[in-house]
Amino acid sequence: MTFTVGLVCAAGVSSTFLAHGLRAALSDAGLDSVELEPMAADRAAVADAGLLLVAHHLRGAADELAAATSAPIVVLSTDDRTAVITEAVRSLVLHTADRTPMEGH
Fold first, then answer.
1. Which tens digit of pLDDT belongs to each residue from 33-70?
2. DSSP per-residue codes, the chain
């Protein structure tokens, strides 16, 4: 089962670059069922995502975005690429933990 995550930035460009590094980190963390979808902020409200990771530079628009979507939102706390990847993986582990089928069930 795939868990779709929107990686949201202002225009969708920086999230595309971040997604490349984040995909490798997700694989290393055993989160191969997570599908990242880089997207611009104006598309996030209508995206079919289980979670939205919102870039730090959009933190001021987080409340507006939260009101426009039913997906949970995690606002990333920094623009530092390495820290963002670590934070995003941690958030995804937490949000996908209850969606992972248990062995034998």
1. 889 988 888 888 788 888 999 988 888 988 988 888 88
2. --EEEEEEESSSHHHHHHHHHHHHHHHHTT-TTEEEEEEEHHHHTT---SEEEE-GGGGGGHHHHHHH-SS-EEE-S---HHHHHHHHHHHHHHHHGGGSPPTT-
